[in-house]
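fyi for ur records
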Amino acid sequence: MVLLIILLFVVFISSPAHLPVRQGDFSISAQKSAAKMKSFVSYSSDCEFPIENLPYGVFSTADNSTPRIGVAIGDQVLDLSVVKHFFDGPHLRDNQTVFQQSTLNSFMGLGHSAWAEARQVLQRLLSVEDQRLQSDANLRSKAFVPLASVTMHLPANIGDYTDFYSSIHHATNVGIMFRGKENALMPNWKHLPVGYHGRASSIVISGTPVRRPLGQTVPVEGEPPVFGPCRLLDFELEMGFFVGPGNNLGEPIPVEKAHEHIFGFVLVNDWSARDIQKWEYVPLGPFLAKNFATTISPWVITTLALSQFTVPNFPQDPEPLSYLKHSDPFNFDISLEVDIKPADAAIPSTVVRSNYRHLYWTAKQQLAHHSVTGCNLRPGDLLASGTISGEEPDSFGSMLELSWKGTKQVQLIGGSTRKFIQDGDEVIMRGFCQGEGFRVGFGSCAGKVLPACPGV
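which gave:
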């Protein structure tokens, strides 16, 4: 009997459900173990939100308009405000109130160990082996909401937004168009992650219509500018990440610890008014051409979920300066697609097939560079990658490239064509990572273009 008790105790403490969470753990093996798990929530193998994913979002419902934090699993949303009492580990037992809030900022600010602990709790709670939620019909009825019935909100109060320019193929394409092959990349491009500060107030959630911007353009080279609607409206296929714990003013975030400050990723469409930008960008860069709307997907896919899809970083030559150097892979195999659906089209046309792995500068390098001056980042800040383009023409992440500055037509299903985005067009971005027998998806990032504001 004594021997049996000892054996049971050993099994208990060695179970993955009771393993301690290591500080800064970003190991692939730790995440791959999740692939063996099975949830009591049923879903198909091509479902975007399996137990291997568990993305966070903020939602409301028709009978409860209060925005609250949820996790997507199958075709359901688990309301974390209802099950917060299950988060009783060392990093969360005194912080359960973060799951009662209307944004993810406070949870993001708790840091990597708390995120890992929360993921461990959720995977255990949703597994077929655990009966606490599965067998409690009353609790299940309160905790689960059909995904199709929810309204999604911005996942965080985004204090600041920065947009980078980190795809070498995109930067090269644009450089060739405007400066020629010999001067395609500016002298600084391979030495630092180029970026600019965007407008946080005009970041909108997927499904929000986008109004065509007004501004100054120069339709005829050498003639005076005119005022009116943008004629060359474009999308930019990007991904962005949310900052977790920030840093004190004057204290940079070291690149080797940057992953501890990266909570998770979303799809980003950083809409661009190319003709407005061409006239205004000298000497300070984009302004009105980029401030009217940036669309993001609602579900934040954590770095812990993405760790099972890590691939080698893009080769960098010359070697970056020491504050940007990191040898650990922080690049991900994320398939990306863009559809255009005209107002009169029955089905959308896929015009882009790209991948996150094409980025030259990693998210860790973007974060380290952003803070190296001592700039203080805060929980919920959003940093976007810049347009993601591959080498092949169908992997170019913008209409500027697909139409090669308007010299080519992009063919759509049904015979219609585009050089840039027209009124009534809906642009839909999707992303997913493919595992063995499961898929980790990002949902969609969609926006329909409305005509310019009348009467201005």
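Residues 121 and 345 are 44 Å apart (CA to CA). thats all i got for now
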